[in-house]
Amino acid sequence: MGTLAAIDVMADEVGLFGHSVGFLVGLAGLLIAGNLVVRGSGAIGRHIGLSPLVIGLTIIAAGTSAPEFAVVAQSAGSIIGSNIANVLLVLGCAATLGAIHVTSRAVRIDIPIMVGASVLFLLFALDNRLGRLDGAVMFALLIGIVTWSIASARRAPGTSGIDTDRAGGSNSGEDRSDASDHGRSDGRLARSILELVGGIGVLALAARFTVTGAEGIATSLGVPELIVGLTIVAIGTSAPEIVTTIVAAYKGQRDMAVGNAVGSNLFNILGVLGLSSLVVPGGIPVAPDAVELDLPIMVAVAIACLPMFARDHRLDRWEGWLFLAYYGAYLTFLVLDATGHRAKDPFALIMVAFVIPLTAITLAVVLYRRRHTTPAGTTPPWSGPSHLPHDPRRRLRRPEAYEADQSPAQPDRSQEIHHARP
To answer: Could you tell me if 114 and 271 are in contact, meaning their C-beta atoms sit under 8 angstroms apart?
Structure first.
């Protein structure tokens, strides 16, 4: 924490130019660190036999949630805001880069677990405090979920990190080759661990540089501190998740991106809040306003993921923009509420009475059309080229293989040649 405090002290002594430089340095650090985290965690997961989804749910989520320990002791509000941002902002940004496809496991297991953890948080917070018993239950649930996720992923066919092709007796040359390969594998694993740990550390520092620089720029331009705290700081708490998820999505690791957002919410609730409630004397306070407004919104946002992914296991670009629009509306309401603006009540009425029901009707119509326009047992048009027969084995074949498959069959002329001989 000494390093982070030093960053804040230096920020108070520089002007607009210094804040701008710090902001740009922080952004560059976030991008570099995000790439290190995705690359290192992916290599570790492949070495021990984990899918990208489970990597995001466990390794990356734990790392990106670690900075939350620094601020949760005072209040659970930062966790609530971070979880709302992880779904609406993080998944929304990732989906705008391209449709996010997820596995059926995420829809059937991981997202419902996130919804259950959010509901449990709401129930435990009804007395405006998370005590030691609450923390013990939540942390025990996290240990059980992580253990089960890793064990089930390693039992899944084709995900084992062990090379099963090397069996039976081998001569001394093969033994030396295996030993050399094993040594290189250990070296790569050590490098991947360093990349992951270093990337997580740089993420925390870069996020602080970015938030501090943005705060300084906004304050220098005359933006009220309250609005800065409700917007820039709120988004800054999710900066590691945002960058890591976008980098994963850009690299084509869409399962890892979804796993990071969902897993980070699980670690925030069950891990950060659970462990903090165990060690902080008196537990973690939860503000009454948070129980009445923010926590129900967090639960509703978590539940909203189910219909989005349920039908075709993907989040389209327009749904990503919808998530971002809702997050913008949420921040707008926070600012109106904090400033006591008279537009707060009309804005809330419009959102509750018109926008949310209209969105629900739109989603219902989209799901209905998708269900009735794709006959059962056929391949949806978005799953691949429509002119090719559906064969899962062809996904890894070269494009010219498709042309060979689609070319007309040549007639067998062997018999003609045989009969033509004298």
So the answer is: no
User: Which residue ranges of the chain lie beneath pLDDT 70?
Assistant: 1-15, 66-75, 155-186, 225-227, 229-230, 233-234, 311, 354, 358, 362, 366-367, 369-422
Residue 163 Ramachandran class (φ > 0 left, ψ -120 to 50 alpha, else beta)? beta
The residue segments making up the domain with residue 80 are 53-159+247-371
Q: pTM of this prediction? A: 0.71
Whether residue 262 is contained in a domain is answered as: yes
Bridge-based pairing of strands 284-285 and 314-315 is unpaired
Q: Is residue 126 part of a domain?
A: yes
Instruction: State residue 82's pLDDT score.
Output: 83
pLDDT of residue 371: 65
Answer whether residue 384 is part of any domain: no
Check the CA dihedral 192-193-195-196 and report its sign.
positive
Which residue type, as a one-letter code, is found at position 81?
G
Tell me what pLDDT residue 216 has.
Answer: 84
Q: How many domains does the chain have?
A: 1
Assign 354 to helix, strand or coil. Answer: helix
129 secondary structure, DSSP code: E
Give the span between the Cα atoms of 383 and 304, in whole angstroms: 24
Q: DSSP string of 27-90?
A: HHHHHHHHHHHHHHHHHHHHHHT--HHHHIIIIIHHHHHGGGGGTTTT-SHHHHHHHHHIIIII
Distance CA 10, CA 327 (A): 32
The CATH number assigned to the domain holding 334 equals 1.20.1420.30
In a domain, 334, yes or no: yes
Tell me the three-class secondary structure of 268-324, residue by residue.
HHHHHHHHHHHHCCCCEECCHHHHHHHHHHHHHHHHHHHHHHHCCCEECHHHHHHHH
8 A C-beta contact, residue 344 and residue 337: yes
- What percentage of the chain carries pLDDT values higher than 90? 8
Which residue, 159, 175, 201, is CA-closest to 67? Answer: 201
| Rounded Cα–Cα distance for residues 273 and 138 (Å) | 8
